[in-house]
Amino acid sequence: MKKSLNSNEFIFRNERSNQEMSKKPIFVIACKEEHEFYTNLPIRDERIIILPFGESLEILRECDTDMVILDCGADPETGLKLLCDIKTVRRDLPVLFLTEVSSEEISISAFRKGARDFFKKPVNIFELTGAIENVLRVKRSSQERRVPFMLTERNNIVEILKSTTADMPSNILNAIQYIDEHISSDIFIGDIAKIAKLSKFHFCRIFKKIIGMSPMRFVIFMRIQKAKDLLRTNNLTISKVSTEVGFNDISNFNRYFKQFTKVTPSAYKRLVRKHHLMEKNDEEFLPVVHRKQGLSMR
After folding, report:
1. Cα gap 297→260, rounded to integer Å
2. Using CA atoms, how far apart are residues 269 and 276, in angstroms rounded to an integer?
């Protein structure tokens, strides 16, 4: 007998549209303390089902899903064992692996056992949301290809915020829009605070509480996203890309790029070229660098 998913027991999003019901749900395996975080992910028209660790494998055997988010907290060994069991039961199932304890050995082990992406906690909500949306888009396409998250086309972060966070204060959205429009120029905290009509102190406090990082950290994050777009879509030199995204010092650009993506701009560009060559030859691309270095963000 198949195990039914009682909405009061497992499903934490109760208001589901017809569009949501026509899709397979996203399964999240996480401890109870993390349930609120996952039920509040800014993903529209998706059904999120939280599974307890003890029953997750049994449910996965009986119920269908498009992907799994496996959050093993501070116990990566238990998470890696469960990941191995999941891939034994459902080899084709994409799994995002999250843990508070990160090392190169753990990230390599997670990828070897079949994880689609690796995240070190605390994770940035935009990176995680982007990874989820990319996995679902590929999974639901007619032919799935193993393409690394960092090479896939990224949604405009400002548009994601506008469409998925209706309760975000308009002044914070205006500040983010200002950052997006001036990403190639010098950006000062005082100017952003003025756009938000707040003092610098209150703006920084509120921005970090809502977005999850300081305003200037977010500026750097946005610069790196634009740099990745330019490296993927243009034949620009690393130095030119650095200038285009507002870095006056190429060494700082290289340092922050590697900090956010775990690879250098040059390595990223080589990965893009290799991926495009493989696509042209219609061969499957296995991201070697991506397997060696898990993506994480503090």
Report:
1. 6
2. 11
CB of 189 closer than 8 Å to CB of 229: no
Single residue among 75, 109, 144 that ends a domain in this structure: 144
Query: pLDDT for 149-171, tens place per residue?
Result: 444 444 456 665 555 555 678 89
Residue 281's pLDDT is 46
Structure tokens at 8: 């009061």
Instruction: Give the whole-angstrom CA distance, residue 178 versus residue 195.
Output: 8
Q: Which of 28-32, 102-106, 111-115 has the lowest mean pLDDT?
A: 102-106
Q: Tokens for 179? A: 């950052």
Alpha helix (H) residue ranges in 99-140: 104-112, 125-139
SS3 annotation, 22-37: CCCCEEEECCHHHHHH
In a domain, 92, yes or no: yes
- Mark which of 144, 173, 194 sits at the end of a domain: 144
pLDDT of residue 160: 55
pTM of the predicted structure, to 2 decimals: 0.52
CATH of the domain at 85: 3.40.50.2300
**Tens digits of residue pLDDT in 220-260:** 988 998 898 898 877 889 999 999 999 999 999 999 988 87
Tokens matching residue 265 = 């701009």
C-alpha span between 195 and 257 (Å, rounded): 27
Domain check: are 230 and 170 in the same one?
yes
